[in-house]
Amino acid sequence: MAPLQLARIVLDVSSFDRASKFWCEALGYQEVHRDDHYCVLRDPARPEALPIGLQPAEGNKATISPIHFEMFTDDINRERARLEKLGASRVRNWSYGTQKPNWIVMRDPDGHEFCICETPTSA
Predict the structure, then answer these.
(1) Is 45 exposed, middle or buried (0-12, 13-18, 19+ CB in 10 A)?
(2) Can you give the pTM of this predicted structure?
């Protein structure tokens, strides 16, 4: 059983180009992945450094956190159940779009959002 691993911090942004440029220059990171839905920045000199994920923001962020943790695991359902016993709750009726998601959105006991994701082969 692989432990739950804090994998990256994700920021909601209005422009991939602007956010990627800012964070890469601010931290010395490089953009290592980009598609229409996600962008990943990494520190090329320190592979152990926590990456930053960027995702497009839509509208007012009053009800959805503009920053959240992503945690990777080899068993999403096992970790969901374990974290629920610790006081977390799954966010019901989350809009995952048309894709088959490889993550679930949860909230900690204080309401902070985080995602439990399948451990990727790369990212």
Answers:
(1) exposed
(2) 0.71
